[in-house]
Amino acid sequence: MINVTVEEMLNAPGRKKIIDIRPGHEFNKDHIPESENIEAGLLREDASFLPKDLPIYIICHTGEMSAEVGEELSEEGYDIHNVIGGYRSYLKYKLTRLMAAKEDETLERRKKAERSIIKTYRKQLWSRFTRAINDYELIKDGDKIAVCISGGKDSMLMAKLFQELYRHGKQNFEVVYLVMNPGYNEMNYQAILNNARVLGVPITVFESKIFDIVADEENSPCYLCARMRRGALYSKAKELGCNKIALGHHYDDVIETILMGMLYGGQVQTMMPKLHSNNFEGMELIRPMYLVREADIIRWAAFNDLHFIQCACRFTESCASCGGTEKGSKRAEIKRLIASLAEVEPVIENNIFSSVENVNLSTVIAYKKDGVKHHFLDDYDG
Predict the structure, then answer these.
(1) Residue 198 near residue 110, CB atoms below 8 Å
(2) Which of 12, 33, 225, 287 is the most exposed place for a label (fewest CB within 10 A)?
(3) How far is CA 35 from each of CA 83, 92, 95, 283, rounded to the nearest angstrom?
(4) 218-274 confidence digits (pLDDT tens)
């Protein structure tokens, strides 16, 4: 009798016979393809029907009973191979193969996502990302950047863009891919972990209780939550030795912010591409997605069959995976307004963006700089 592994049995060339000697009810639940069930007791009583010109593989649950039966049949002149570990080893083998197949599939999806950034969406994503970094001088030699991942499409794409930048560009900086769990429900948290695994982003996760803290806040819970999350990210990034945090705000966020400030805030201001932190000395916030359009991010995600969470806070988590979390918000109103205007005149979006780059102070009634208000009458007659 020869002892063999499941893999050796399955890969053995030529004709063979596989006999499963487990009880019939166990065999009926699951068994090795092409095997036949002959319970141990029956096989011991009469094995005359077995061919002596073929290798016979005997399998039980653990490999112990099959070894005993195999020894007896081997003494009778049969070419017996005992499967080590029995059916349990077959289950392990099948699971290993399944996991390997899934890993291969995951690796292929990851490669496709990476190729699409550099090739398919090079103009829309890669070029705009690198242009923002160069135009606004977002990365300098020796930087250590915490790329902050919320789990949404924008920050996940930003993480991949940083990976590609390090792979294809100047390696003059370090990156930490930082994920804060402020109290996500399990479904959303697992979605973040799964997308990071599929995309090959080596995330560093830390916990906070921010959702619990703001849950009872009646006035502006979203404002408080955003400030606390920003502070927590700065704090953790600094702890990890970073001097910058990168957020995934994009072009559409910028133009929406400009219009919101005018219509609801009575002021002209914008979301800056980079900012020095007032509360964390030596820390800086950068927005490398500043020139990337949201529609192109959505196209990239759809092209790669990727599904990300939306805003997953305690107040909206019931619809955090369906894209309905912005309904009723001022930003949603502005988003719809810009879209309707752009349908009539597409250049409007670019004009909104450019408006804060082309401010003519000679035609402005008043403006503030470093907290000091300046009025046109101050030097009108001078």
Answers:
(1) yes
(2) 33
(3) 13, 18, 19, 66
(4) 665 666 777 788 888 999 999 999 999 999 999 999 999 999 999 999 999 999 999
| Rounded Cα gap, residues 105 and 99, in angstroms | 10
Range of the domain at 330: 121-369
- The reply to whether 215 and 314 lie within a common domain is yes
Please give the structure tokens belonging to residue 347.
């250049």
In angstroms, the CA 217 to CA 224 distance is 8
Single-letter amino acid, residue 182: P
- Residue 153 sits in a domain whose CATH number is 3.40.50.620
Number of domains in the chain: 2
Same domain flag for 144 and 282: yes
152 in Cβ contact with 253 (< 8 Å): no
The residues pairing with 4 across neighbouring beta strands, listed in sequence order, are 83
Closest CA to 117 of 106, 128, 107, 108: 128
88/196 same-domain check: no
